[in-house]
Amino acid sequence: MPESTEPALRYAKELAARAVAEASGLAPGPVHLNIPFRDPLVPPLGPREDPPGSASAQAPLAAQTSPQSATKTVRFHRAALAPQTKDVRWLAELCRRCERGVISCGPMDADPSLATAIAKLATQLAWPVLAEPTSQLRSGPHTSGAPILACSDLFLRDPRLAAALAPEVVLRFGTSPTSKALKLWLEQHAPAHVILVDPTGQWQDPTHLATDLLQADPLALCEALTQQAAHADPAGRSETRSEVRTETRTEGWLAQFTRAERASARAVDDSTEAEDEWLEPRALRELATALPDDTLLYVSNSMPVRDLDAFLPVSTRPLRVLCNRGASGIDGMISSALGAAAGQPQPVVLLIGDLAFLHDVGALLTARRNAVDLTIVVFDNDGGGIFSFLPVARVADAELFERHFRTPHGTQLGPIAKSFGAHVARPVSWEHFRSSLKDAIASPGVSVVELAINRDRSVEHHREIERRVGDALRRDAEAP
Length: 480
Description:
Layout lengths: L5 H18 L31 H4 L8 H5 L13 H13 L3 E5 L6 H14 L3 E3 L16 E2 L2 H4 L3 H6 L4 E5 L6 H9 L4 E5 L14 E3 L3 H13 L8 H35 L6 H11 L4 E5 L3 H9 L7 E5 L9 H10 L5 E6 H6 L3 H8 L3 E7 L11 H4 L2 H9 L6 H7 L3 E3 L4 H13 L3 E7 L2 H24 L2
Parallel strand pairs: 1-2, 1-4, 2-3, 4-5, 5-6, 7-8, 7-9, 9-10, 10-12, 11-12
């Protein structure tokens, strides 16, 4: 209760400490607090209470209590879940025996030390890292020289290649990956071992393929495995012998992935570089190139996070990418990005679709009231563009599909954003897009950069890229 009493202060401090501990714990995330109030919603005014508006009544609650109570705090002590020695030895031996292994990195807010540790482990094992942007593995200095791939969502759609790359072992960090192609690949070619590394112990396995769950600190586990792998060669008494073993592996298993990555990347480059229309693949690449180092890119659900997974290249530039899966997919995206922007000094850019923007447009009022800086890039295809990529688009009645699935809104987003005090830009060229983005990031408050996407042309373009990737993979396979 909002009362100037020592019990109330002790309770408030304990509740605050618990909330911070939960929000930053093993499963970090939002915490919901229920704050009770008595009728008539103000503290009771007793005979010894100072009248409202007086200096003592306006003083902070801590200043109205005894010095001993005011300085007493609750501290939360957390220890890392160190992996057990037997588990490290078992997993290290499994990695040594199985050449056909991959490291899958799903959504997680990995810090640079964990990203570096995973990259070192993958390099040591000569296993490819299938990393989506929200894993924090695809961007940063750790990518230099490491087998981190960006095009797996594209090349795993090729049935022939997917079968040839069937893995024996999958070591997964983070939650379930976004890529449908990756999910189908594992379901159709079920590995003998699927190991989930999760310090929270939550069994996030929608494919039901997991064989082991390691409840351990991922950083400690990677460092222990890397150390074990460095000494796993029975004859590896010298650094040179270990390097030879790694090179031999690379020439076989890993080389197949790197060739597929290069062929796919070239096909995407050829498809997007000459594209003058407002279409998502090039827009994503232009966006990634234009963002300042250490930008926080908040990406919405539905098509934006999937397009980012498919088309964001690997880069040594630091970029943090977050995504909120939401209770209904696209709800609360602007609010989530504003929360991220309010908590850090670096630029924050939200990539969002038009329906998700409209769903949470009222959050712009909160941004104005609290003077939060945020740049919003909106892909406006006038409705739910993702449904045009699903089987329902081919089997549903055209009128019903348009009304109940694509749900066109016919609304101009710019005037709506301006009514909340946002700066709005609607670029007319790629050069204009780059300059508008630069101005938006440098401007205080909320800025909206709106790109009008032709939905039908977008579907054609995505399928064209998929065909080009398939052709490139076939040419690569036929090459001597």
